[in-house]
Amino acid sequence: MQHYFQLPRRNSMKEIATDSPNIARMLRGYSIEVNPSQSKVMDAAATRLDPGTEVFLTWIPNTNPMNMVGPAAKLRGAGLLPVPHIGARHLASAAQLEQLAARFVEEAGVDRVLIIGGDRAEPAGPYDSSLAVMRTEVFQKLGVTRMAVSGFPEGNPNVSDIVVDEALAAK
């Protein structure tokens, strides 16, 4: 089932963007994705979203993923459900994965993650896919109860359709 919302007609986009009760109503029951390095966005999420809203935290390539832990903790403290992106191909080592997972769980109360392959030609470390990260069971051992995956419905130019289909079946 799909849900669609029609925003009320306004004279300008600025009026729509600043009408927080309407935005909050539109988002109720849905998730949102934010860049954890944008403090104004993080502050707005913490104050404007309903408790229990899933907030996905993007891992921007070439940034330190540990920098997502503080924003995740802030969201959890506001009653939201932080869902950090874990980019498999961006992970430099098993130790980095273990440390990142432990910090998310222990410092930010994370109980769900989105594991993505990470769109880069060559892996930075030992993980070439989201499935490889899932198979480590690092998150499961720490008590993470939900793992989400994403993909390219149109296919991925860097991965054959056969490989994508096999990975989806394995997940």
Describe this protein's structure.
The protein has 171 residues and is of the alpha/beta class. It has one domain (38-170). Helix content is 40%, strand content 13%. The protein has a five-stranded parallel β-sheet, with helices on one face. The longest helix is centred in the middle third of the chain and has 15 residues, at 94-108. The chain is globular, with a radius of gyration of 17 Å. The two termini are 23 Å apart. Mean pLDDT is 84; it is low at 1-17.
What can be said about this structure in brief?
The chain has 171 residues and is an alpha/beta fold.
Main attributes of the structure:
8 helices, globular, alpha/beta, 171 residues, five-stranded parallel beta sheet
